[in-house]
Amino acid sequence: MLVCFGIAWPINLLCMLRSRRIQGSGLKFTLIIGSGYVAGAASKLALWATGSLPLSPLFWLYVLNGVTVGLNAWLQYRLQQSERLARQPT
Residue 6 region, left (φ>0) first, then alpha (ψ -120 to 50), else beta? Predict the structure, then answer.
């Protein structure tokens, strides 16, 4: 799942950059997914911090996916602002 999502988010980011549109992408949904990645990374860090386990390689997948989700959320926010400004009468 982490690998598939890890591939999907950069593709989504590129599509938004090329089209300059956010249709089909919800900012709230993206933020919920991002919080899931933060929770996953935090759980791996917590296990590592107790000294019971070494730092899992999955931690780095959570970080990478979290960064791409964060970039998606930022771009969605920026494009929403641009769309709002374009719709305002001059």
Answer: alpha
**Cβ count within 10 A of residue 4:** 8
Q: How far apart are CA 9 and CA 21, in angstroms?
A: 15
Report CA torsion sign: 14, 20, 24, 28: positive
Average pLDDT over residues 57-62: 91
The answer to whether 19 touches 82, Cβ cutoff 8 Å, is no
Tokens 């990478």, located at residue: 64
Report pTM.
Answer: 0.78
d(CA 50, CA 42): 12
Beta strand extents in 21-88 (DSSP E only): none
Tokens of 49: 């911090």
Terminal CA-CA length for the chain: 46
Question: Please, which residues have CB within 8 angstroms of residue 28's CB and are 6 or more apart in sequence?
Answer: none
